[in-house]
Design goal:
By secondary structure, the protein is mainly alpha-helical. The protein contains 17 helices and four strands. The strands form two sheets. It has a two-stranded antiparallel sheet with strand order 1-2. A two-stranded antiparallel sheet has the order 3-4. A hairpin with a 2-residue loop joins strand 3 and strand 4. Helix 14 packs antiparallel against helix 15. The longest helix has about 35 residues. The relative contact order is 0.17.
Length: about 500
């Protein structure tokens, strides 16, 4: 570790803690009536800078090979199949009105999403309380609805969920102030480096492009994935039965999920690195496209890319197996397949949650995936449920705000109809359902675009939770007002922890 006051360089950027985590040295600018931060620093893993080199390189090479294979398949087999599909779908209808509506609704959704950021910074505690109460109310409404609909079993399940949510809300209510301080800190960090939001939008467009490319490749080899060669005679009649090549299908699914996970997690690592730079070296992260943000994205795409691919591959494997189980539901042994699907779903959720925290350490310090995982275990060993509770409470806010944006854009979409604006929907299929179609488009567009910002903020919240455990002294020195707020709310629940 570096000397006091001298920032330690992590992968070329000053993001690591400059204080010795094993000492009781307080922040230089901390007032004398503030307790020292050594307890919190010791409770974290004490992240350390890592040498600048590519980590988990074989997994990055595996992704590059996957991309090359899909591009080759799409180029050789997919072009003709894609052209034929477009020709077959030509119907003479004019969809330009829906395109115009999509752009308008998208612009509205972006504006509304931008408004949510200052709202979250102004009333974070109220939003967390309201979202928590709404979750309880929603489960209660679902229980009543199932009973009214005559589904006793469904009603019982939702009633149990309602009671569990009531107990959960009562147990975590006292933690809301700390969760709101986390949310405020994350929003402040993202606001100071708002260029990271546009990075997130870029990666979403990249994911969309990848989906198109993969679909073209799938169309080109569909005859190899699904064949129709088996002829079965039943009662004298002859039928042609489709047969799925499960090996090809698994590889194609693995290819899709692997790349999609990498794109998603690269955004997460970039945000975590940016928040870490803001935390430890605020002078480098105080502009739209700050050096800290650009450096974090470069590291995520180079030295830490192999670690991102490693964790993404684990989730992609489980997702592919789960998709195969879903595709095989109509086969024999349906109960066993259903059980396997349930188990795979649980494993996927656990891996996703673990990766969310592991990639924060990758973004902050440049750890390999395995080393980052060890730090996650250390974090939860020392912080226990506090990190999970804070993350979950803030996640409820993001979910309901995304629904609100989607609901507003849905309502705006209802304003479109077959006669207004003039000429937009003159030659569309089912002209009587223009309003419903635009409303559906509005809801989806609003939900997706708002979710991009919310996922960016969620990554910021995760990074803040880790940084507060790893470097509270630096937080006090660089952001004293936010630091005092987090310390005060932490001490409300743990008055004797000595943070």
């Amino acid at each position: 570790m570096g000397k006091s006051g001298a920032p330690v360089v992590v992968q070329g950027t000053a993001v690591a803690s400059p204080y010795d985590h094993t000492t009781s040295q307080p922040a230089a600018s901390a007032p004398t009536d503030q307790p020292t931060s050594s307890a919190v620093a010791r409770s974290g893993g004490g992240g350390e800078k890592q040498a600048t080199r590519c980590r988990d390189l074989p997994f990055a090479l595996l992704l590059y090979g996957n991309l090359a294979a899909i591009i080759a398949v799409a180029a050789v087999y997919g072009a003709d199949a894609f052209t034929d599909a477009i020709s077959d779908s030509t119907s003479g209808y004019d969809y330009s009105g829906y395109v115009y509506a999509t752009f308008i609704l998208g612009a509205v959704a972006i504006i509304l999403t931008g408004v949510t950021l200052p709202i979250m910074m102004c009333i974070p505690e109220i939003l967390i309380k309201v979202s928590l109460v709404l979750m309880v109310v929603l489960t209660g409404v679902m229980a009543v609805w199932f009973f009214v609909a005559g589904s006793i079993f469904g009603g019982i399940i939702w009633t149990i969920s309602f009671l569990i949510f009531c107990c959960y809300a009562r147990a975590v209510w006292s933690r809301i102030p700390f969760a709101s301080a986390n949310l405020t800190t994350a929003c402040t960090a993202i606001k100071k480096n708002c260029g990271v939001v546009f990075v997130a939008y870029f990666f979403v467009l990249l994911a969309f492009g990848w989906t198109l490319l993969w679909s073209i490749a799938l169309a080109g080899v569909s005859n190899q994935v699904v064949t129709s060669e088996e002829v079965v005679s039943v009662g004298g009649a002859t039928y042609t039965q489709n047969s799925v090549n499960w090996g090809y299908l698994f590889l194609l699914l693995l290819s899709y999920f692997f790349t999609h996970q990498v794109i998603q997690n690269t955004t997460h690592v970039t945000v975590a690195g940016t928040v870490g730079s803001w935390w430890f070296a605020p002078d480098e992260t105080s502009s739209f496209c700050s050096g800290g943000m650009i450096g974090s994205m470069i590291r995520a795409l180079t030295t830490s890319f192999g670690s991102i691919c490693f964790g993404s591959l684990l989730v992609a494997l489980v997702q592919s197996l789960k998709a195969l189980a879903q595709a095989a539901r109509d086969q024999d042994n349906g109960i066993l397949i259903c059980i396997a699907e349930c188990i795979l779903g649980c494993i996927e959720s656990i891996l996703r949650y673990f990766n969310k925290w592991a990639f924060v350490y990758v973004g902050l310090y440049g750890y390999s995936y395995i080393e980052a995982g060890k730090n996650v275990f250390t974090l939860f060993k020392n912080r226990g449920w506090e990190a999970i509770i804070a993350d979950d409470l803030v996640g409820n806010v993001f979910f309901f705000l995304s629904l609100c944006v989607g609901g507003i854009t849905c309502a705006i979409g209802l304003a479109f109809n077959e006669t207004s604006p003039e000429g937009w929907f003159d030659n569309v299929p089912y002209p009587d359902s223009v309003s419903a179609t635009c409303a559906g488009l509005g809801f989806i567009i609003g939900l997706v675009l708002s979710s991009i910002l919310m996922s960016t903020l969620a990554s910021g919240v995760n990074a803040v939770i880790v940084c507060f455990a790893e470097g509270p002294a630096e937080f006090e020195a660089n952001h004293p007002e936010l630091s005092r707020k987090m310390r005060e709310t932490w001490l409300q629940f743990y008055p004797n922890c000595g943070v």
